[in-house]
């Protein structure tokens, strides 16, 4: 069957090449209908109503949350599946040792096989979208084809989707094709029909990227980054390759605008691994009087050198896909307040009065809930009511902290880059890198404790360079080389690089730093460093605040704790250096010599401090 034979609402002006691409996918996947998404409110409401009718989404109590919905996924489809995520570059070495590589010819055969007829009995949706504000030099376009209306309504919140994006594509702009199926056809090849299920998916999953042709094909999952292909698949894996080729960066970084008491603006981007308080930092409410922190992005930044030689950044997304558990009025009031209307929740618990709940939302759990699996739950049940990777999807501008310039198509000039992670020991509260090369070494060697955002053993320490381990679309060593090269392009206009760690613990296992709004204090020091107004002393892992330089006014914290937060034990750092060296070995000849030199410089600083 070709598209002409299938009911469709193809808009006027779609060029032949795009039509024939859509026809090819329809010929392969064999949907019953094709729907071109216009991104309108009416379309969104209609799809949401259909999903409610089907039972996939439960409308929440409108008196508590207007136009909000809860979805429960299949328990086998709850997080990104890194083990089923593939980089299908022509050469294996271009994917590198930290990615799953698959031969592109073989993978194309596999993909063709699983996609054959996979949309039978379903509608195929075409979602044109823009990553970044329309018309910006840093922005780019894409089209996701999917058989999941749930994916459509999430994509419409997460990107700038619909007619305007299609018009730009029709006019000839570059775009990235992304094809997605939940892998649950409703009719088999012999014409036998079966009923749909609340959360269609498939045990067999493939999240595949073809970097040479900038293509994405994803099969078998309907959850998060496996299915909302604009996010991790495009904005990070494919975009990181485009960025390397074109001289920019696609990074797993939040983006903030900071205003100091003098009214000066600074911009900060920060790389944190998944679920490490990134959303909290993106919506930080500073405790230092006179400071303002505003949100531009919570997860991904695209950064490109501007005409003045500085690095300009945009948030390519238009929404937040955040982790709900742990979020409360104490930890992130701004995010919580943003979720009182037009929000989709996934895998959190349902209260008896039609609201949502998750671990950490309140000190005391409600006496009764329906948990994320749809079962009755009481505090005695003994299992979490919400899945630890339970999520919310909401438009970014629903956050009261959104910066006035968050949609500036030209981006914002970045002054500070932060690298973070969860480290219970060794890594100090903040340290400034000695220079760009040292900053790249710090980013390359960052390690963090594993969280629930992906499958894996929670709590285990994993090295997560630039927080890009699961998101870099090419060889990580070539990625470091790209960062080093860009440092030469940016020269003295390059942002300053810092490493932070909010998660250091004392001997009893208690966090030593209060975190949350107080995180503005090390950031304030970083800003004053950039402005040339704060002193630092040299230390093993970088330059740390000179005594008295960190603003602790109004914070009840002992000098002993502050000292402990900045303790750099040479013996422990010697082990860190050994682990970094061991980690680097897997990259063989591709490891940039600058990083080997940085390792030697680290060892020299350790020796000096011993
Ligand atoms: C995310 C992630 O969802 O990093 O942002 O896993
Ligand atoms: Mn992320």
Describe this structure in words.
By secondary structure, this protein is α+β, with helices and mostly antiparallel strands. Helices cover 27% and strands 21% of the residues. The chain contains 15 helices and 32 strands. The strands form seven sheets. Strands 1, 4, 5, 6, 7, 8, 9, 10 and 11 form a nine-stranded mixed beta sheet that branches. The longest helix has 17 residues, at 230-246. The mean pLDDT is 96. The chain binds oxalic acid (OXD) and manganese (II) ion. Residues 80, 224-225, 274, 299, 321, 453 line the site of oxalic acid.
**Main β-sheet, in a few words?**
9 strands, mixed
Instruction: Work out the number of β strands.
Output: 32
**Average pLDDT reading:** 96
Ligands and ions found = oxalic acid, manganese (II) ion
**Which stretches are low in confidence, meaning pLDDT under 50 for 5 or more residues running?**
none
């Amino acid at each position: 069957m070709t598209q002409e034979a299938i009911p469709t609402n193809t808009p006027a002006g779609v060029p032949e090449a795009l039509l024939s691409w859509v026809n090819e996918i329809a010929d392969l996947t064999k949907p019953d209908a094709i729907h071109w998404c216009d991104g309108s409110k009416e379309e969104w409401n209609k799809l949401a109503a259909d999903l409610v009718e089907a039972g996939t989404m439960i409308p929440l109590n409108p008196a508590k949350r207007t136009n909000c919905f809860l979805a429960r996924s299949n328990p086998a489809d709850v997080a990104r599946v890194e083990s089923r995520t593939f980089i299908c570059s022509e050469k294996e070495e271009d994917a590198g040792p930290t990615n799953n590589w698959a031969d592109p010819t073989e993978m194309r055969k596999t993909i063709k096989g699983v996609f054959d007829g996979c949309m039978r009995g379903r509608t195929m949706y075409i979602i044109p979208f823009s990553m970044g504000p329309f018309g910006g030099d840093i922005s780019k376009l894409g089209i996701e084809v999917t058989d999941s209306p749930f994916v459509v309504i999430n994509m419409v919140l997460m990107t700038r989707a619909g007619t305007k994006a299609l018009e730009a594509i029709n006019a000839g702009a570059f775009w990235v094709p992304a094809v997605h199926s939940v892998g649950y056809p409703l009719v088999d090849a012999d014409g036998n029909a079966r009923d749909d299920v609340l959360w269609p998916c498939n045990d067999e999953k493939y999240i595949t990227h073809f970097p040479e042709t900038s293509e994405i094909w994803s099969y078998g999952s309907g959850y998060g980054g496996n299915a909302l292909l604009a996010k991790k698949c495009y904005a990070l894996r494919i975009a990181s390759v485009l960025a390397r080729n074109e001289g920019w960066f696609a990074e797993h970084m939040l983006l903030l605008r900071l205003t100091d008491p003098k009214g000066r603006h600074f911009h900060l981007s920060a790389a944190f691994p998944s679920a490490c308080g990134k959303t909290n930092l993106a919506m930080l409410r500073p405790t230092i009087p006179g400071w303002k922190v505003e949100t531009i992005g919570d997860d991904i930044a695209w950064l490109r050198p501007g005409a003045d030689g500085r690095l300009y950044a945009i948030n390519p997304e238009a929404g937040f896909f955040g982790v709900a558990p742990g979020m409360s009025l104490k930890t992130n009031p701004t995010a919580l307040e943003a979720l009182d209307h037009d929000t989709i929740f996934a895998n959190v618990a349902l209260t008896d009065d039609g609201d949502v709940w998750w671990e950490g939302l309140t000190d005391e759990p409600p006496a009764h809930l329906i948990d994320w699996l749809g079962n009755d739950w009481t505090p005695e049940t003994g299992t979490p009511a919400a899945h630890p990777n339970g999520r919310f999807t909401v438009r970014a501008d629903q956050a009261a902290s959104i910066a006035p310039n968050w949609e500036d198509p030209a981006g914002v000039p970045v002054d500070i880059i932060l690298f973070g992670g969860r480290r219970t020991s060794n890594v100090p509260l903040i340290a400034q890198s000695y220079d760009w090369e040292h900053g790249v070494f710090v980013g390359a060697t960052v390690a963090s404790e594993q969280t629930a955002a992906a499958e894996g053993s929670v709590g285990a320490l994993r090295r997560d360079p630039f927080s890009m381990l699961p998101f870099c679309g090419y060889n990580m060593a070539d990625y470091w080389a790209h960062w080093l090269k860009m440092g030469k392009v940016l020269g003295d206009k390059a942002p300053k690089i810092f490493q932070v760690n909010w998660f250091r613990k004392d001997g009893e296992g208690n966090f030593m730093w209060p975190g949350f709004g107080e995180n503005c204090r090390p950031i304030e020091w970083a800003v004053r460093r950039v402005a040339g107004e704060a002193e630092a002393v040299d230390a093993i892992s970088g330059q740390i605040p000179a005594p008295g330089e960190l603003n602790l006014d109004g914070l009840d914290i002992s000098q002993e704790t502050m000292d402990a937060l900045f303790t750099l034990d040479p013996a422990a750092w010697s082990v860190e250096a050994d682990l970094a060296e061991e980690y680097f070995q897997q990259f063989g000849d591709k490891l940039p010599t600058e990083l080997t030199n940085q390792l030697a410089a680290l060892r020299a600083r350790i020796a000096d401090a011993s």
